[in-house]
């Protein structure tokens, strides 16, 4: 039975290779899209991340507000501009500014009083682009740090702070504060005044510097090794590779329906070849084409984007082969369910797009809601992407490839069983 | 209407014309013989042995020329024939010889390396015939093999069929063209509504109908008298 099977596989490969445009698209499209996504998500150390455009409208022009502005301008996460209030609001509406912060008149004094005595806090207005809600959280946190630093620094050692210390001490008895608390605050402010006096005597140095972050941060991306930087292209090529692998599966399924429509299936079925041989040959040619597409994509990523298999090479190949088998059996399932090529194509494309989206091929699965992250374990694309990630940039060993391979082959077995149960063998 | 009660025999060196209106069951009958459909009851006998199963050895004795141009347009004529021959376990020199012989018969030797999509309709029909002959079958089932071809190609196909008949092949030929059956068929089987309503030589069928002296009844008139004049869609 080997001669017909080999002939069927060879014929499918010949037909695929005979269409140069389809061949180019099969290889170029995943590479182009994966390169684009990779450039977006790559954590390469030699590139600066895109800064968030933030406008600060300083209507106070106090030492505190100027210090906040200066601190924000030095922040690597922010790109600060200082337009008028109207310009800032308009910029947010147009999308050129993500967040605009307005520090109102009297902000410096009011924040100082609120800082020491808990008096009414000044209101800072933030206009933000609702399509960038995530950045709003980041900007709020960063500005809180800069504001606390600026206000505390000014309150403990700045001119305005000294004035406010004197003023607060003078008015403390009329503040209505509980006596014990009032006494503690008086001791604190007296001590601050004493420190400032010593600093003046020493020529303006040695005074309290205000609040600062009580810790420093050592950031380390956990990859395959301590000196190995994260390569975002590894994930994007895995995701797009799987997506186009499944698109190839659609072509396989549609191809069978086209063969049936053109009467070619009659020739196959009239020959003394078993059904298992016919479907087996289709699965084999589909697997070879899918594997070729995946390996060419990764080969390109290795040469051009320095993607490396940091984990087990055998594990990588095992995951890749399991992915290809899963994809080709999925193609057979499409052929067994579909009736006509045109009617089937749209449904098949939609199902593949859903599968790769839920599988984390477009965006990492951690951005999904918790319930969805749990549900997506039933999506083969997720196991495929996780398996390829594990063998590439995560640098894990062969044992971490076993579960993805087993699950992908399990999906292949399921698709094959459904295909055998549903396939229409009768020909008229 | 599925085929319900069709029974006829096909002898070596004989061409049987299988006629019937649209929906009569001609293609279904051919599909049953080639194993494309599984009969609920009844059987196909080849030299007295029942044909059963996808891989039954007797299937190798049957060649099918389907109504559709069942060819891979993206491949050359030779690549098509290599593939169809391999389905019957042909390989190597045996396959090469079979391809050469089939292409010679249908007059396409000089175009063997050309892509099928560059062929005319008539050439495709002839290649369709060649694909059914590669494994040298004893029985050839031809389902409307001349649909849409020019007179020259049709004539060439007729000559090919005459040659095959002389080689001792048994040919079953379905067609809507009565003049083809008149020219080629040694025996004519007419089916309608899934049943055989006539099975005889052309002369035998003519004897059933009265005719003016010296004016033989045409097969088309006989056919219409047997199957009626109402439209079949």
Describe the overall structure.
- The complex is a heterodimer of chains A (428) and B (233).
- With 428 residues, chain A is mainly alpha-helical.
- Chain A folds into two domains: 231 residues, no CATH class; 150 residues, 3-Layer(aba) Sandwich (abc type-2 transporter like fold).
- Chain A is 67% helix and 5% strand.
- In chain A, strand 1, helix 3 and strand 2 form a beta-alpha-beta unit.
- In chain A, helix 2 packs antiparallel against helix 9 and helix 6 crosses helix 7.
- Chain A is elongated, with a radius of gyration of 32 Å.
- The model of chain A has no long low-confidence stretch (mean pLDDT 86).
- By secondary structure, chain B is α/β, with parallel strands linked by helices.
- Chain B contains eight helices and eight strands.
- In chain B, the strands form two sheets. Chain B has a six-stranded mixed sheet with strand order 4-5-6-1-7-8, with helices on both faces. Chain B has a two-stranded antiparallel sheet with strand order 2-3.
- In chain B, helix 3 packs across helix 4 and helix 4 runs parallel beside helix 5.
- The longest helix of chain B is centred in the C-terminal third of the chain and has 16 residues.
- The model of chain B has no long low-confidence stretch (mean pLDDT 90).
- At the A-B interface, helix 1 and helix 10 of A face helix 1 and helix 2 of B.
From the structure above, extract its key features:
heterodimer; A: 428 residues; mainly alpha; abc type-2 transporter like fold; 2 domains; four-stranded mixed sheet; 16 helices; 67% helix; 5% strand; elongated; B: 233 residues; alpha/beta; six-stranded mixed sheet; two-stranded antiparallel sheet; 8 helices; 36% helix; globular
């Amino acid at each position: 039975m080997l001669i017909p099977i080999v002939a069927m596989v060879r014929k499918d490969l010949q037909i695929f290779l005979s269409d140069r445009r389809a061949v180019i698209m099969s290889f170029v499209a995943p590479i182009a899209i994966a390169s684009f996504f990779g450039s977006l998500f790559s954590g390469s150390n030699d590139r600066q991340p895109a800064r968030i455009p933030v406008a600060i409208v300083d209507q106070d022009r106090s030492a505190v507000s100027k210090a906040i502005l200066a601190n924000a301008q030095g922040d690597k996460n922010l790109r600060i501009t200082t337009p008028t209030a109207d310009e800032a609001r308009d910029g947010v509406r147009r999308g050129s500014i993500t967040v605009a912060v307005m520090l109102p008149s009297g902000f410096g004094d009011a924040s100082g009083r609120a800082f020491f005595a808990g008096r009414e806090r000044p209101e800072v207005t933030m206009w933000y682009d609702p399509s960038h809600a995530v950045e709003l959280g980041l900007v709020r946190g960063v500005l809180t740090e800069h504001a606390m630093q600026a206000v505390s620094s000014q309150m403990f050692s700045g001119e305005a702070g000294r004035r406010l210390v004197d003023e607060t001490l003078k008015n403390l008895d009329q503040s209505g504060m509980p006596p014990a608390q009032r006494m503690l605050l008086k001791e604190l402010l007296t001590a601050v005044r004493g420190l400032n006096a010593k600093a003046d005597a020493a020529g303006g140095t040695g005074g309290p510097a205000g609040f600062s972050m009580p810790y420093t941060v050592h950031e380390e991306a956990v990859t395959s090794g301590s000196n190995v930087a994260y390569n975002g292209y590894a994930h994007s090529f895995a995701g797009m590779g799987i997506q186009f692998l499944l698109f190839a599966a659609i072509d396989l399924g549609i191809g069978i329906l086209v063969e049936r429509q053109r009467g070619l299936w009659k020739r196959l079925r009239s020959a003394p070849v078993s059904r298992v041989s016919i479907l087996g040959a289709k699965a084999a040619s589909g697997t070879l084409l899918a594997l070729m597409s995946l390996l060419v994509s990764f080969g390109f990523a290795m040469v051009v984007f320095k993607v490396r298999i940091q984990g087990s090479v055998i594990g990588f190949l095992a995951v890749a082969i399991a992915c290809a088998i899963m994809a080709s059996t999925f193609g057979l399932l499409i052929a067994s369910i579909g009736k006509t090529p045109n009617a089937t194509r749209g449904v098949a494309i939609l199902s593949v797009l859903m599968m790769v989206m839920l599988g984390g091929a477009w965006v990492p699965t951690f951005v999904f809601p918790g319930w969805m992250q749990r549900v997506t374990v039933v999506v083969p694309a997720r196991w495929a992407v996780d398996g390829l990630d594990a063998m590439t940039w995560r640098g894990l060993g062969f044992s971490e490839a076993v579960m993805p391979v087993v699950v992908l082959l399990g999906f292949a077995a399921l698709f094959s069983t459904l295909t055998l149960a549903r396939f229409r063998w009768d020909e008229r | 209407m599925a085929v319900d009660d069709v029974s006829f025999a096909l002898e070596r060196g004989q061409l049987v014309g299988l006629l019937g209106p649209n929906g009569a069951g001609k293609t279904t009958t051919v599909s049953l013989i080639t194993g494309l459909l599984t009969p609920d009851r009844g059987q196909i006998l080849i030299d007295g042995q029942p044909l059963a199963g996808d891989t039954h050895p007797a299937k190798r004795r049957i060649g099918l020329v389907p109504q559709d141009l069942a060819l891979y347009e993206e491949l050359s004529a030779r690549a098509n024939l290599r593939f169809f021959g391999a389905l019957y376990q042909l390989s190597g020199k045996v396959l090469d010889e079979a391809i050469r012989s089939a292409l010679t018969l249908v007059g396409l030797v000089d175009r063997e390396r050309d892509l099928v999509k560059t062929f005319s309709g008539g050439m495709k029909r002839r290649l369709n015939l060649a694909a059914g002959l590669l494994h040298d079958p004893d029985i050839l089932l031809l389902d409307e093999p001349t649909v849409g071809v020019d007179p020259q190609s049709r004539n060439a196909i007729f000559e090919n069929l005459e040659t095959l008949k002389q080689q001792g092949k048994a040919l079953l030929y379905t067609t809507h063209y009565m003049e083809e059956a008149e020219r080629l068929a040694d025996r004519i089987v007419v089916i309608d509504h899934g049943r055989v309503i006539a099975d005889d030589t052309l002369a035998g069928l003519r004897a059933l109908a009265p005719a003016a002296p010296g004016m033989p009844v045409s097969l088309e008139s006989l056919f219409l008298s047997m199957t009626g004049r109402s439209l079949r869609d």
